[in-house]
């Protein structure tokens, strides 16, 4: 089907259909909805070269994917991309994915923007004083950050979850249950979300006169194997922790395996709370002992970031530039009172 046939089907002029597809603000919302619905039903695809000439837009969102020896695929990032895709497909937007060594990401972002192949870009894996932020602020291409950096003014568009609040709530619950010996299995220590989660846990413990010793903090890639290794190490301590905080249900999967192999009972001998990104293949309620979690959907975050970027590109609506989502604390069987007889 071509543009002429689509316009005849809808009883609209070719100009109106084209303007609806290209996000012109003078096309009302109902007409745009009719056009997009017809596009989905008929499978119509505009000539992208002609569309770019007419609008000056590429119809693409750019992202830089870190890759190097020792960096493995990340199920969390995949779920986030699925959310981006859910929204992008509604508006016939594409992704331009540029691989980069982690040390070169700022330069790669600049090159991607300079190529003219993207209308907007999003950033992830935020670090302390992240150099990509000032670089992108100096350019004209719209961007949204998933997360927030640390140590610089928060004067850029972002969507983040309250990582500090999430792990404050989790640690406070365990302290209220009488636990006195804690451990944290966290993400890589150079990433901002991991810094904030450690900060939240320490703040809650300090309010109860407790500490989180360095030997009870483990930073690593968020994989099953790293969770297992961390938990094994903690169980070998002279005073093993009875309360564990995990930055992911993937880490928790390995931690629970180590707990089971040690002959301990989750929720009785040891309590555990994990952060749940709502990964469809790893639901906390399906663990042998259902996990207590802090919860916020990565897929929903991806959808929202794509919605914000595309709305800005197509002038569809004005959306918030900065969003900090609260997490839900879901209590299940993996948390219980501190076991009797443990040393204070």
Features:
single chain, 344 residues, alpha/beta, 434 Repressor (Amino-terminal Domain), Rossmann fold, 6-stranded parallel β-sheet, 16% strand
Q: What does this protein look like?
A:
There is one protein chain. By secondary structure, the protein is α/β, with parallel strands linked by helices. It folds into 3 domains: 3-55, 434 Repressor (Amino-terminal Domain) (Orthogonal Bundle), CATH 1.10.260; 60-161 and 298-326, Rossmann fold (3-Layer(aba) Sandwich); 163-295, Response regulator (Rossmann fold). Helices cover 41% and strands 16% of the residues. It has 12 helices and 12 strands. The protein has helices spanning 3-10, 14-21, 29-42, 48-55, 75-88, 105-114, 132-137, 163-176, 192-207, 224-235, 249-261, 298-314; strands at 60-66, 94-100, 120-123, 143-146, 158-161, 182-186, 217-219, 243-246, 271-276, 292-295, 322-325, 328-330. The protein has a 6-stranded parallel sheet, sandwiched between helices. A 6-stranded mixed sheet has the order 7-6-8-9-10-12, with helices on both faces. Helix 10 (224-235) crosses helix 11 (249-261). The longest helix has 17 residues, at 298-314. The chain is elongated and about 80 Å long. The termini are far apart. The model has no long low-confidence stretch (mean pLDDT 91). Keywords: DNA-binding, Transcription, Transcription regulation. Residues 1-55 form the HTH lacI-type domain.
Q: If you average the pLDDT, what whole number results? A: 91
Instruction: Determine the strand fraction and express it as a percent band.
Output: 15-25%
Principal-axes shape call: elongated
Structural class: alpha/beta
Figure out the total of helices: 12
Major pleated sheet: 6 strands, parallel
Examine the secondary-structure arrangement and name the CATH architecture of the largest domain. Answer: 3-Layer(aba) Sandwich
How many domains is the backbone divided into?
3
Q: Order of strands across the widest beta sheet?
A: 2-1-3-4-5-11
- CATH class of the largest domain reads Alpha Beta
Separation of termini?
Answer: 74 Å
What is the helical fraction, as a range of percent? 40-55%
Oligomer: single chain
CATH superfamily of the largest domain: Response regulator
User: What is the β-strand count?
Assistant: 12
Uncertain ranges = none
Can you write the helix and strand succession as a string?
Answer: HHHHEHEHEHEEHEHEHEHEEHEE
């Amino acid at each position: 089907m071509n543009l002429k046939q689509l316009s005849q089907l809808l009883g609209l002029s070719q100009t109106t259909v084209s303007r609806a597809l290209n996000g012109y603000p003078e096309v009302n919302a109902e007409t745009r909805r009719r056009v997009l619905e017809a596009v989905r039903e008929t499978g119509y695809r505009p000539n992208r070269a002609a569309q770019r000439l007419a609008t000056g837009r590429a119809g693409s969102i750019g992202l830089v994917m870190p890759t190097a020896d020792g960096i493995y695929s990340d199920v969390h990032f995949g779920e986030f991309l699925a959310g981006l895709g859910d929204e992008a497909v509604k508006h016939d937007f594409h992704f331009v994915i540029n691989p980069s060594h982690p040390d070169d990401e700022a330069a790669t972002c600049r090159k991607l923007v300079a190529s003219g192949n993207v209308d907007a870009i999003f950033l992830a894996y935020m670090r302390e004083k992240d150099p990509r932020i000032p670089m992108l602020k100096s350019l004209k291409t719209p961007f949204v950050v998933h997360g927030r950096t640390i140590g610089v003014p928060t004067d850029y568009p972002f969507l983040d979850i309250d990582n500090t609040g999430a792990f404050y709530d989790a640690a406070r619950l365990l302290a209220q249950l009488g636990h006195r010996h804690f451990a944290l299995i966290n993400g890589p220590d150079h990433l901002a979300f991991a810094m904030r989660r450690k900060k939240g846990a320490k703040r809650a413990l300090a309010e109860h006169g407790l500490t989180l010793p360095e030997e009870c903090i483990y930073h690593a890639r968020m994989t099953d194997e790293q969770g297992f290794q961390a938990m094994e190490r903690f169980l070998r301590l002279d005073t093993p922790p009875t309360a564990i905080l995990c930055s992911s249900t993937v880490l928790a999967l390995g931690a629970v395996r180590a707990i089971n192999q040690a002959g301990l009972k989750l929720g009785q001998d040891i309590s555990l709370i994990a952060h749940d990104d709502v990964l469809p293949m790893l639901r906390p309620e399906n663990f042998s002992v259902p996990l207590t979690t802090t919860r916020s959907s990565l897929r929903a975050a991806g959808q929202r970031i794509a919605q914000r970027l595309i709305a800005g590109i197509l002038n569809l609506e004005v959306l918030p530039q900065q969003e900090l989502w609260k997490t839900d604390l879901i209590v299940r069987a993996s948390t219980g009172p501190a076991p009797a007889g443990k040393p204070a």
